Amino acid sequence: MNYRLKNWVNWVLYDELVKGELNAPKHLLGIHDYGDGQVITAYKPHSKKVSITSVTGKSPVEMEQLGDGFYGAFFDKKKYKGNKYRFQTEYHDGTTVTSADCYAFDSLITDYDVYLFAEGKNYDIYEKLGAHPMTIDGVKGTYFAVWAPNARRVSVVGDFNMWDGALNPMQIHPASGIYELFIPDVMPGAVYKFQILTRDGEILYKADPYGNQAQMRPDNANVVADLSKYKWTDAKWVEERDKTGRVDRMKKPMSIYEVHLGSWKKEHEDSDFGFYNYRDMAKMLGDYVVDMGYTHIEVMGIAEYPFDGSWGYQVTNYYAPTSRYGSPTDFMYFVDYMHSLGIGVILDWVPAHFPRDAHGLGRFDGMPLYEHSDPRRGEHPDWGTYIFDYGRKEVSNFLTSNALFWVEKFHVDALRVDAVASMLYLDYGKQSGQWLPNKDGGNENYDAIELLQNINTVMEERNPGAYLIAEESTAWAGVTAPASLKGLGFLFKWNMGWMNDFLEYMKLDPYFRSFNHNRLTFSLTYAYSENYVLVISHDEVVHLKCSMLNKMPGLEFDKFANLRAAYGFMFGHPGKKLLFMGQEFAQLREWSEARSLDWFLLDQPLHSKMQNYVKALNHMYTKYDSLFYNDNEVMGFEWIKCDDAEEGIVAFIRRGKTAKEQLLFVCNFVPVERTNHLVGAPCLCKYEEILNSDAEEFGGRGTSNGIVKAVPQPCDRMPYAISLNIPPLSVMVFKYDYVDKK
What is the pTM of this model? Predict the structure, then answer.
């Protein structure tokens, strides 16, 4: 053995390398200055011979074998610069592989990256951590980086190195806990994981927390993906979106179609893998949504998840669109196509918890890392999931960057944040002894509050037109107040209170509705406390809650009439709108992620006419700014009739930007027809009926009022009255231009 090589080698590091414990392989492997000369070492287990050549492949120099699979070469002069050499590795089966030395490339993690990450403010960290195909000094390959501060050693393993952790151990960056390695010749499509040796000597195989693509379940490794390949065409959309400020956004219409991509339509019903591709789905779904008059779609969670039955709310890969429907660039096309049609894209996002799957984030490096270390803070006992450690800066950085990632890399327009209440309350879903109070003895999660405020603030700064929507089921004050005013900073909040009260009211036999009239009207007492979205979501049509149609009382005809009345009232009530897929044509069965919607129901007149009705509601909603412009202003809504519980009729006014085309709603929630019935009117003018849920085209009996003229007769606290024929279980909408003739 060359004595200079022998003297140069740190044999303690060699022993760690052979044992699979070396976390700084660049201290031993690669190219190193040695006096006036150079030492190059390589570790090639299972090899027969290794030689060093120039990049042109000329003048190979056979390396000396210093140990089992460990090779070295000494040069009197500095023959090679940087990574300007190649290894020729000959194996016992006669194959020879030529490759660049992965330990000859400089670190891509800077001290500034590390500083910002430790502060929780490296919002572009997803550009460094994860797997990134790139070319360095003419060498094509993939750069890998992962945060695993408690690991003893981390290796990249995959289909390019026989899943052998000995071949590509990663280099730890000092003091950061980040491991990194550029591996030449690893190209997009390569499958990989991180092999982690824990402090206890356990070997873990973990998916990449920042990986951009995953295998199709049940496989769970990552796939190297190149997100730069897609060429966007929505620059004008994004530019116009980011010109729309917070106040202007609230004054625009928003009718959302909530959709689960895997079950809206399936290509093959009898297959667990029979999904349409994102690209195919974009055309079918986009054209349908436009025809139906929706302004937005909300896509239920698509960040990669292993279990179909979780619907995307048990995430293992936060930076990877699920491979069930195609590649990341396929999903980019999906968003791009929606924008080309003028449809906004809202994505469900789940920062409240994550599952315990072995390949996921839990105990990532052998110890609690992404989850809080105290089970009273770090686990949901009822859900069987982990809770993020929101107070750890690197974890808050992971989540903040992830929110930005979906907006900046995939151009989604908004994130609907799932289960916000479970983040805000330390005792959410927990019994006495299962939770830990905050420093002041309360149940507020200060770390989660700070995280949500920061995400909303940074999102608005970096992407002014993008926004977040909170699914928050309690009376927490200031959910949609700006973070600068000590609110959480969300732009909208789901109105769960309205949804629960209203659905309970609609499920009642009409006889009993009179005793529960407050369920219908109470929401207006708090309608302006937050910026609300009225929702009838997927959660309301699963787990034996019945479909929307089957919630309604009565026989078939009355069920449809009740449902039309419900939707009509919803579209008249202040707040943006959301309906779950299938509700627009009165799906009979509860929703299941395992099958398509029952599109065959459209062959039946009542179902197809219900679809026509929702379509008419959407187009009316987007046409008349009375229904959205003043959603958050008291002047936008006024009761005409709301206190006659026995009669079961309510009436109200919606006002828009001007005095023209204001709308008057008359809703009848009992199966009793009223003829020549007087309803209060705000001014002495003509009232034109623009929608009647009892129209034959919507499945009703055909009652119509046409144009009616107000008379100077006080009624319902109004100075004037109109005489109407009011069908049972119906909603009528009248257009008028306000005229002040006192």
Answer: 0.94
At 76 the pLDDT is 87
> How far lies 279's CA from each of 330, 331, 337, 472, 567, in Å?
6, 7, 9, 32, 31
202 catalytic? Reply is no
Q: Would you call 375 helix, strand, or coil by DSSP?
A: helix
Residue 716 CB partners (closer than 8 Å, separation 6+)? 640, 641, 651, 679, 680
What is the pLDDT at residue 237? Answer: 96
Alpha helices (H) along 293-365 = 328-340
Rounded-to-integer distance, Cα 411 and Cα 234, Å: 9
Count of other CB atoms within 10 angstroms of residue 511: 11
- Of residues 281, 348, 343, 282, the one with CA closest to residue 311: 348
- Closest to 102 measured CA to CA, from 160, 51, 208, 26: 26
Q: Which of 502, 522, 523, 505 is nearest to 514 (CA)?
A: 505
Task: Tally Cβ neighbours within 10 Å of residue 723.
Answer: 16
Helix axes 393-408, 446-462, angle to 10 degrees: 30
Q: How far apart are CA 365 and CA 413, in angstroms?
A: 34
How far apart are alpha carbons 533 and 469 in whole angstroms?
9
Peptide bond preceding 218 in cis form (omega within 30 of 0): yes
Name the phi and psi angles at 234, rounded to 5.
-105, 30
Which pair of tokens denotes residue 397?
């950085």
Return all residues near 644 (Cβ < 8 A) that are at least 6 apart: none
Residue 584's identity, in one-letter code, is: E
Spatial distance between the Cα atoms of 4 and 608, rounded to a whole number of angstroms: 85
d(C-alpha 386, C-alpha 11), whole Å? 42
**Phi/psi at 204 (5° precision):** -115, 145
Report in angstroms the alpha-carbon separations of 628 from 252, 538, 654, 659, 662. Answer: 6, 24, 9, 15, 11
Given the residues 101, 113, 226, 418, the one annotated as active site = 418
Mean pLDDT by groups of 10 residues along the chain of 742 residues: 80 93 95 91 92 84 92 89 91 90 95 95 97 96 98 97 95 93 97 97 97 96 96 96 90 97 89 89 97 98 94 96 96 98 98 96 97 94 95 98 98 97 95 94 96 97 96 95 94 96 96 94 95 96 94 96 98 98 97 94 98 98 97 96 93 95 97 96 96 97 96 94 97 92 58
Q: Which of 348, 471, 540, 716 is catalytic?
A: 471
Tokens found for residue 439: 């420093």
Q: What is residue 414's predicted lDDT score, i.e. its pLDDT? A: 97
With a CB cutoff of 8 Å and minimum separation 6, the contacts of 500 are none
**Could you confirm whether 471 is annotated as catalytic?**
yes
Report CA torsion sign: 642, 573, 535, 423: negative
For the chain, the 3-state helix, strand and coil shares in percent, each to the nearest 5, are: 30, 25, 45
Q: What SS3 string covers 58-122?
A: CCCEECEEEECCEEEEEECCCCCCCCCCEEEEEECCCCEEEEECHHHCCCCCCHHHHHHHHHCCC
The rounded distance, in Å, linking the Cα atoms of 584 and 599 is: 11
What does the DSSP 8-state code read for residue 444?
B
Q: How far is CA 78 from the centre of its chain?
A: 53
DSSP character string of 175-210: TT-EEEEEEET--TT-EEEEEEE-TTS-EEEE--TT
Q: Which residue has the tokens 């400020």?
A: 245
Q: How many Å is the Cα radius of gyration of the chain?
A: 31
